[in-house]
Design a protein that fits this description.
By secondary structure, the chain is an all-alpha fold. Helices cover 73% and strands 0% of the residues.
């Protein structure tokens, strides 16, 4: 039996740790806060600093979302099993929605930036786009929760044979 060095054990532990589940909170929080600021600016258009802050939060959400997506891709390729076709389908929809969201919010942030970041303007179309993004974000988060809690994807493999097992939804 070959013994592992501490570095090998550490590397193995890092690959098992579900970083996607940790990192995904950043874009969600940033985009949600941006939407709240948008709602305030919609009611009080004189709040240019809030509109500018909202744009910065959108960009920060895009960047942190891209990082979370990389780790989500790692989880998708290493943890979702073909033997569980329903989990695989849910994971594909979750992945597709997240890729869509990164591009959607990048377009929204770009529109705001190029239209006049200095003026801090926001239109009704901006708010509508942010609301659509938030709706897609909530749906994707729900699917991510289903992957973790129903299909046990990304949970610690400390209990052998548990990862990937499905639970019955409460009736």
């Amino acid at each position: 039996m070959q013994t592992q060095t501490p570095f090998q054990r550490s590397a193995e532990a890092r690959t098992r740790f579900p970083l996607h589940s940790f990192l995904v909170h950043f874009p969600v929080g940033l985009w949600l806060t941006s939407f709240i600021l948008d709602a305030i600016v919609l009611v009080r258009p004189d709040q240019t600093l809030l509109a500018q802050t909202s744009t910065i939060l959108l960009w920060a959400g895009v960047l942190s979302g891209a990082v979370a997506a990389l780790f989500g891709w790692r989880d998708y390729t290493t943890r979702v099993r073909v033997e569980h076709p329903e989990a695989l389908r849910v994971a594909r929809v979750h992945l597709s929605l997240n890729v869509f969201l990164i591009f959607w919010y990048a377009v929204l942030a770009s529109l705001r930036t190029f239209r006049g970041f200095v003026f801090g303007t926001m239109t009704g179309l901006d708010f509508l786009m942010a609301a659509i993004g938030l709706g897609v974000l909530l749906r994707s988060a729900m699917l991510g929760g289903r992957l973790v809690f129903l299909y046990r994807i990304g949970q610690s493999p400390a209990e052998p044979g548990r990862e990937g097992e499905t639970r019955r939804p409460p009736e």
